[in-house]
Amino acid sequence: MNREEKAFARTIFKVKVLSANGQAYEDLFCEVLSNAYPDFLPIKPKGKVGDRKNDGYIKSSGRYFQVYAPEDPKSKDTEKKAIQKAEGDFSGLKDYWQKIYPIEEYYFVFNDKYHGSTAELEKTLKNIKSANKLKSAGVFLAKHLEDTLFKLSDDIILSIVGHIPDLSNFDLIDFHSLREVISYILENHKPLSAKPVLVVPGFDEKIEFNGLSKRVKNLLDSASYQMGTLDEYFYKNGAAVKQELRDILNEKYKQAQVRDFGDTDGVAKGDLIFFDILKSLVPNSSPSIENAAIVLMTKYFEACDIFEDPGK
Q1: Contact 248, 305 (CB under 8 A)
Q2: Per-residue pLDDT tens over the stretch 276-296
Q3: What are phi and psi of 43, to 5 degrees?
Q4: 298 near 227, Cβ under 8 Å?
């Protein structure tokens, strides 16, 4: 699959996750894990004893999974139930399965529907790990399931998400992931933090090395105070979207590098490249949308995916 097809597939998978509750999400989870790990075994509930608090496990590593997929993962009642279930299910799991295949790792599979985990649930799993001397324990979120799927071959991804239409018959998708992340920054705007999140070693040196003006430096500085919103988005979503956005920005940077800007009227080439990338990301947009796009550009400026690293 090319980048656009993969973005489309990711959107379909996300819809599957958002609409799956209870057994439907457990079935989706088991389908992905069965393809990712040949020795993963889903456990089918049987009669009154059920599955003995084990929805699936990998014998070779002693890794066990228990799934919880509520309709509303954000409610306070759900958080309370999730904590009780994580603790209660582990106790039931240990009582039966420890004697058969010792438990080395325990994962509470929570369909958070891309809202993220909670501090109390994370603490609960950490306590389970410490009290039972496990190698690992944690919350397995929707983004982790997405990451697991999109590391697999295209044919397996398509077998799970379904048919991808011929995108040549559609207008340019205009990068769904790009629209999604900019919308998230706009909708989740937070008060400015006391300190910028962006900390780039040699930031001033990189500005100078790339021929960027004080104006662009100020834009990057200002955007860094909103970096927490972007980091929150990346935390809630899979690694695939972060890589996809990196590829988009890097490609637009390379295109801008070789563009003939004609009569620059004394404007530094670094600035021309910066604003060319910005306009290609959000053409004919409002200042608020442009500001959101600059937050994204700032993140990848930090990682040297756009503009050059003086150290190299």
Answers
A1: no
A2: 999 888 887 788 888 889 999
A3: -110, 120
A4: yes
Q: Where are the domains of the chain?
A: 3-161, 174-302
- Cα separation, 284 vs 290, in Å, equals 9
Q: What are the structure tokens assigned to 160, written together?
A: 């799970």
CA atoms within 13 A on the CB side of 34: 13
Strand partners, 42: 56
CB 123 within 8 A of CB 93: no
Contact in structure between 229 and 188 (CB atoms under 8 Å): yes
Q: What is the pLDDT of residue 117?
A: 93
Total count of residues recorded for the chain:
312
Q: Estimate the crossing angle of helix 3-19 against helix 176-187, to 10 degrees.
A: 50
* 168-225 per-position pLDDT tens digit: 544 434 556 788 888 888 877 666 555 555 555 678 888 999 989 999 999 998 888 8
- Which pair of structure tokens corresponds to residue 135? 């190698």
DSSP annotation string for 223-283: HHTTHHHHHHHHHHS-HHHHHHHHHHHHHHHHHHHT------TT--HHHHHHHHHHHHHST
Q: CATH topology for 3-161?
A: Restriction Endonuclease (3.40.91)
